[in-house]
Amino acid sequence: MPDTRDPSARPTHGDDVYVVDTRKAGRRSSPRAAAPGPRQDPPRGQPRPPQAAGSGSRRGSDGGTPVGRDPGSRRERNAGNPVARDPGSRGGRGSGPGAPTEVKRTRLRKGRAALLLAAVLIIAWLAFLVWVPVAAWGRVERVDNAPGSRPVNTAGYNYLLVGSDSREGLTTAQRKALGTGTAEGKRTDTIMLVHISESGGKPIIVSIPRDSYVPIPGHGSNKINAAFALGGAKLLTETVEQVTGVYIDGYVEIGFAGFAGMVDGLGGVYLCVPRDMVDPKGAHINLKKGCQVLSGPDALGYVRSRYEDPLGDIGRANRQRQFLGAVMKQAATPSTVLLPWRYKSVADAVSSGLIVGQDTSLRDAIRVLQAMRAVSNDQGLSLGVPTSDLAYPTDAGLAVKWDTEKARALFQAIKNDEPLTQAPPGTTTKEPGK
């Protein structure tokens, strides 16, 4: 081994030879570093000697394994370190592009994008569900129905729901298909009082027979249908308020066009016909007994027919309430709400034939629909005005006479917003299909 000690510290002899180490100091790992030589691996099974400090950057003459470093030392050091052995850990093997960690990050970004897209679609769908009825409501026709002299407004909400036989907006072909005839003007086929309680009672729908014989302000006594023909919505509202004592908060009227279009927009309505019904004169129907899906024209004829009904106008009022319940059930099905074209077509059809009072708001219309839905689900009361004579002779022909005492009790309970949970005496008749 060369002697690297300071020559001045050594004794001098005449034949001494001095060797000077000219290697760079930075390459030496110690003052007495050994010259590189062939690597000697220990016998198999024996532990390798510890690596000299500072030798991590030196390699053998063959450019291979660093001098003094055991190739298996990293494996031994990492044997008990799960983090070091994880190829997906930060800084470990496989941390480059396409490594498991990057895959996880990509999946996370895709998951977040999917959630964001789902949230946007849900918000857009909810906005669509709100926009359709609001836009349709803006196209609804308004009418002044508020009379001058009115009863005191009491608790609860009361609405007048009218189905008219107006042909307005129907083409000649539509009039022929619906069997509406060519009569001008309009009359009521349906008159209903809808009550929404604020005292915990069930929603109530009361059918008022259109042939009810009542006093009409300024026109003497006549069938209540005449009030609509003589003075439209305003006189009809005033007549109903005077004979019932109930303040009317809103007015909703639907004509033939909206009626049939609504049913067709729903894809038909499922109804149980109580008997074979043949009425070629008034309703233009030929229906067989049993449960079936009725189209717009057949459904319209079903609720209009009265000449073949043994109960006459009372039977028709029963079928009208049955029909409204069936419509609300169909309108609330996923096939209607989740199909945008059907949802919009129903709203457009209703708005095309709908007339409301000037003071009637969209919130009022929603209350009416909610009451109809409650009744259809047996969570409300479907009633009729108590009657004492269905063929009462009058100057206007045979009419329907109310049972004065029972009718007064019914309307007094509604006026006072009494929480009714069952039908009062005399307010029900046998419903069709039961």
Characterize the structure shown.
With 434 residues, the chain is of the alpha+beta class. The chain folds into 2 domains: 107-138; 142-415, LCP protein (Aminopeptidase, 3-Layer(aba) Sandwich). The protein has 12 helices and 15 strands. The chain has helices at 73-77, 82-85, 100-138, 172-178, 224-244, 256-265, 296-304, 313-331, 334-337, 340-352, 362-376, 404-415; strands spanning 141-143, 157-164, 188-196, 204-207, 213-216, 220-223, 250-254, 269-273, 277-279, 285-287, 290-294, 354-357, 381-384, 387-394, 397-402. The strands form 5 sheets. It has a 7-stranded mixed β-sheet with strand order 1-12-7-2-3-4-13, sandwiched between helices. Strands 5-6 form a two-stranded antiparallel sheet.
Question: End-to-end span in angstroms?
Answer: 119 Å
In terms of structural class, how would the helical and strand content be classed?
Answer: alpha+beta
Low-confidence stretches: 25-35, 52-61, 82-94
Our Rg estimate from Cα atoms comes to 46 Å
Could you say which overall geometry the principal axes of the C-alpha atoms support?
Answer: globular
> H/E element string?
HHHEEHEEEEHEHEEEEHHHHEHEEEH
The number of helical runs is 12
Number of domains: 2
Full CATH superfamily name of the largest domain: LCP protein
Helical content class? 25-40%
The number of E-state strands comes to: 15
- Assess the beta-strand content as a share of residues: 15-25%
Major beta sheet, strand line-up: 1-12-7-2-3-4-13
**Which fold name fills CATH's third level, the topology of the largest domain?**
Aminopeptidase
How can the largest sheet be summarized? 7 strands, mixed
Mean pLDDT: 77
CATH architecture of the largest domain: 3-Layer(aba) Sandwich
User: What's the CATH class of the largest domain, please?
Assistant: Alpha Beta
